[in-house]
Amino acid sequence: MYKQTATGFLLLLLSWQLQAQSQLKELLELSTASYPELQAKRWETEAAERQVQYERSDFLPSLDGSYQMVYSTNNNITGMFFPGQILPISGPPVPENTMDFTYGSAASLLMNWSPFTFGKRESKIQSAKFSQELARHQESLAILEHQVRFTEAYLNYWAATSMAQAAEKNKDRYESNLALSKTLVDNGLRPGVDSAQFRSLFVRSKIDYLQAQKTADNMMARVRELLGEDQMAIGLDANLERQLSVQVEESGGNHPLLQRSRTQMLLAVAKKTELNRSLMPDLNLWGTAFARGSAIQFEGGFNRPMDGLSFSRYNYGVGFQVAVPILQFARTSKLVQRQNSLISAAEAYEMQVDRALEKDRTVAKVTLEKALEAAQMAPEYAQAAEYSYQALQARYDAGLINLNELVQGQADLARAEAESIKVMTEMWKALLYYAAVSGDMDFFLAQLQE
């Protein structure tokens, strides 16, 4: 029983450690899956995929079936036909005008097929494919931007919470010194003004702590909004407290922003091809089967109106049609010129995005390197301030220094703790910035879990 209890405790402890180690990663994955904006981008990508499937289905023939039944006068032709898929067939005129009503019916099948489009269908499919690729890159870019926003918000929350914890420690130190000063004043070892000053500083530290808590709560609300889920508990990732040892490497040109620009240019070229091929002829093959029924006799008149509900004549036909847009060349040429301008604009935008990303990568690399150097010195700074404060407190207890020196030492310690938190936060933000301009959040997450 003791072995089972120990094993269960170890498994629970290991589960808790794994959860703490992957807190930010789990929240980031949940945010990516749950945030409404990203869900909308996924639906847009799926819609673009369906458009490609639709353009490909244009190769299939169309087959339209129609049936109609009418009740009309028998003047002039074999009854009245409504417009639609029924091909009208005229009949003999009646010898005299009459307002007698009779039934008529008709049914037809009309098939239309364009097996050869002279490149029109292929150009539309190609444009749909580039539109699908563009939607996919826009989704990737939206995911990257959201992950960066969420991670930055979480780092701000972590920093604000750490600041609140540091403010609480500073408040506790003032409270301890206040109790100590009261004892020293009661024993006549210190003037009464020390207790009054410590009380004032203690109250001020409580106010600072409340302000830090308010800031942390505001940061929590921002993280919760970007998370897209209201039930998930948000904790602090313990990995954010450790130092980093990052090997900065040159990133390639796979940033979603650059890929989107390239795809926009390729889509503009595909649209130009589609315009050029729109001037090609249209070749349609068609076939029809038609049946009609009418109660009207050949010489006019009718016997029974209901005879028109049964079919009496059947017709079949096949054929083809070629249509050439003769007068469309001039107008289409203007659209082609317009598309050439759009292609040039897309190429210029792509060049600008490439240059901007190159500049951002250079800045991000230098920023990360300097942030790593500063983070290496932060623990030493805080430890030195802690040691100095402990020494000053001992000297104050022994009556060797006055109140101002101890207060200054405590203020220096609080400043060192706050600066250490700030430096660590800037280190992680610099790593996030480098991952963002490289277009690879996996680089950030890999460093987080090492």
Task: Describe the protein.
This protein is an alpha+beta fold and 450 residues long. It has 2 domains: 23-60 and 116-281 and 324-449, Up-down Bundle (Outer membrane efflux proteins (OEP)), CATH 1.20.1600; 61-115 and 282-323, no CATH class. 65% of the residues lie in helices and 11% in strands. The protein has 9 helices and 4 strands; from the N terminus they run αααββαααββααα. The chain has helices spanning 2-21, 23-34, 36-56, 120-186, 192-227, 256-277, 329-397, 403-438, 441-449; strands at residues 62-73, 101-113, 282-294, 313-323. The chain has a 4-stranded antiparallel beta sheet with strand order 1-2-3-4, with no helix packed on it. Helix 3 runs antiparallel to helix 4, helix 6 packs antiparallel against helix 7 (329-397) and helix 7 packs antiparallel against helix 8 (403-438). The radius of gyration is 40 Å and the shape is elongated.
Q: What is the mean predicted local confidence, pLDDT? A: 83
**Looking at this structure, what is the CATH superfamily of the largest domain?**
Outer membrane efflux proteins (OEP)
Instruction: Report the major sheet.
Output: 4 strands, antiparallel
Number of strands: 4
Distance between the termini: 36 Å
How do the strands line up in the largest sheet? 1-2-3-4
Radius of gyration: 40 Å
- Secondary-structure-based class equals alpha+beta
Share of β-strand residues: 5-15%
CATH architecture of the largest domain: Up-down Bundle
What is the C-level CATH assignment of the largest domain? Mainly Alpha
Number of domains: 2
Q: What is the CATH T-level topology of the largest domain? A: Outer membrane efflux proteins (OEP)
User: Secondary-structure element order, as H and E?
Assistant: HHHEEHHHEEHHH
The helix fraction, in percent, is 55-70%
Poorly predicted sequence stretches spanning 5 or more consecutive residues: 1-21, 76-83, 85-92
- How many DSSP helices? 9
Q: How would the global form be characterised?
A: elongated
Subcellular location: Cell outer membrane
Coiled coil: 127-184
Protein name: TolC family protein
InterPro entries: OMP_efflux, TolC-like
